[in-house]
Amino acid sequence: MVGDVIVHTDIITERFCCDIDKCHGRCCQEGDAGAPVTIDEIAQIEQELDTLWPHLTATAQSAIDRQGVAYPDPEGEMVTTIVAGRDCAYRGCNGCLLRTKPLSCHLYPIREKQFTSGLTGITYHRWDICRDAVLKGQAQDIPLYVFQREPLIRRFGKQWYTQLETTVDQMKKQGLI
Ligand code: SF4
User: Fold this and answer.
1) What is the model's pTM?
2) How far does residue 60's CA lie from ligand 1's centre (Å)?
3) Which of 26, 88, 132 to mutate to test the pocket of ligand 1 (most atoms within 8 A of CB)?
């Protein structure tokens, strides 16, 4: 537990560093649902839509026409619209077309979970398409929480991240990691 966030140990112990040259950002292209988005993020995408429109593919445009910029997944969580059951509608030739990437995309492969108790947890989502990121992270000895420093600060704040670093130091001193 760091502050009031449950942090899975994998986020501290596992190594990870995206290797876009190898994976080509496939996390935006594969999967059976879009990326989780908040109500504010949906509003931001709607505001950007006129500017984005000419850069979207025809299939992305018709998917958005049909169901809007986001839709509820089977668990009722709002996620970004996808095309052909897998590709993010906002993916362009050079990556994400959105001015501000949704937080869930920025945090990936860290995933956030809300518990019924009201607590928030973060876990490491393992996906085979990220295997080169695991190899690169191991070769360069980059823990996942270090690689994802910026999105973790975006989500929980600088003070929380410093608390996380202190927790990691303490765990090292106690020989826990
Ligand atoms: S999260 Fe995985 S698929 Fe996405 S850019 Fe990083 S290594 Fe590639």
Assistant:
1) 0.91
2) 22
3) 26
